[in-house]
Amino acid sequence: MKTEVTAVFDLGKTNKKFLLYDEALQPVYKSSVQLPGAVDEDLYPCEDYVLLKDWMLSTFAEAVHHAKYRIKGVNFSAYGATLVHLNRAGEPIAPIYNYLKPYDPALQHGLYERYGGRSAFSSQTASPPLGHLNSGLTLYWLQQQHPDVYRQIHNSLHLPEFCSFLFSEERYSGITSVGCHTHLWDFTRLEYHRWAAAEGLLEKLAPLAAARSAAQRVFNGVPVLVGRGLHDSSAALIPHLKREERPFLLLSTGTWCITLNPFSQEPLTDTELDADCLCYLSYEGAPVRAARYFAGKIHEDMVNGLCKEYGKSPAYFYDLPFDEGLGLIAEEAYDLHESISYYHQPNAAQAYHHFMYSLVRHLLPSIQLAKGRTPVRRLIVEGGFCRNKIFMTLLRRFCPQMEVLTSGDEEASALGAAMLTQELYQEHALVMA
């Protein structure tokens, strides 16, 4: 007898994962790939549409025909601020632009000035100016600087909803993606910002769909619910919102370390926006205060450098225990110099302790920004840094007023997508009845 499972594609910038969860929400299968990238017309790195699509469809086809599993539903969590531009036939007509691609400051400034100035615009959209990380600005950039391409766009879908489209053939905009520092959503009015309509961008966006919605399709003769997709940070909150009885902060660690606060009722100030504090939307459409630091990428680059300098493998650093003496040396060096040369230490362990001390210290302001004035005393850490003993030891020491916990969830964003999909089974069964 086949095991009934929920499938989830969990797409990070670096790692693309496919997971199957049983009815107890335990992962029974997981695979991971790192797909080679492509480049756009400016030779800037970007996602490879063909490789991504082929991997997803072939991976799912193999799972659907697996002798051991019966897939009841599939959903998607993926990184945000990334649009896939499709023509009427559903084919891409532009690269999947990288959100780190430099943005024309004059174009951005001119838009702000037409709609009340940078401060008002940022406050209303609950996001500082971030260039292509404000994905609405990517669509505006195409309209203004690549009009021939823009005219061919029938719909621009954010990455989670594009993944859903590959399986459902339905085009929708998800609330968690639209609310992900896009500059498209007005958090003061809880609707699209007026600039998106005034500039004609809404014509290129698919209709809004709730996270609690799905399409039903048949694969290999079996009906399968296809979820609409979720921004990964919003998906990662779902398990904790359902389990925790007390307020908490969630520190989701990956390429970005993002601190999420779903309990804040404060509007963002100009100072907080200038410090890169912003808001997401939860899967239920509620504002989530957030702040981020590029800690995962900084860590990856530094470990690669330390491996070359000291002749170690990455595993050496990932498994290194915290050493009190090396921690004290790192503290003294940081206090005296604010920075040190990590490549000129007596050994690899000391260099890594110095680096991690600095990394965690630089992460703290983003945690405090997300916390704001919310009376919360619990910080839950999920993701790759959960397993880093030095990171967790230092974080607890730097946050003595907080109860710092690690999540037992290996992939919180994938689990959140699976949880929501399982709830949809019952809701759709009631509708069908």
TrEMBL record:
GO MF: kinase activity
Sorted alphabetically, which keywords does the UniProt record give? Kinase, Transferase
Pfam family of this protein, just one?
A: FGGY_C_2
- Where would I find the Carbohydrate kinase FGGY N-terminal domain in this sequence? 8-195
- The answer on whether this UniProt entry bears the keyword Endoplasmic reticulum reads no
* Entry similarity comment: Belongs to the FGGY kinase family.
Protein name in the entry: FGGY-family carbohydrate kinase
Q: Provide the species name.
A: Flaviaesturariibacter amylovorans
